Amino acid sequence: DAHYLAGRMRSAREAFGRCVEACGGAGALRFAVMNRMMVGWCHFWCGEPEASLREIATATDDALRLSHLTAQAMGDETMGLIREAVDEGRVKETLEVVEVVESFRRF
Predict the structure, then answer these.
(1) Which residues have CB under 8 Å from 30's CB, separation 6+?
(2) pLDDT exceeds cutoff 50 at 107
């Protein structure tokens, strides 16, 4: 979460991915689902909307299988937001915001 909050999306994606692996290995699948959602968001912010949609779809399917209502809601909402950005061609516009945020980190 610290990397994500600081706008370091590649580092955040790697950290959330490690959490997914650790949670999966420990059998904490409900926690793995929420971290997988965040991997999906990180893909989006890294300019990889298709990878984002695939990751979120997998996480949402897992949430449904686990009856994890919070994760299901997050997945449905996230898919809608990302599809809207992609369909409206606003990915480039959105990523420009990320560049501005990253420039703040230099100070």
Answers:
(1) 66, 68, 71
(2) no
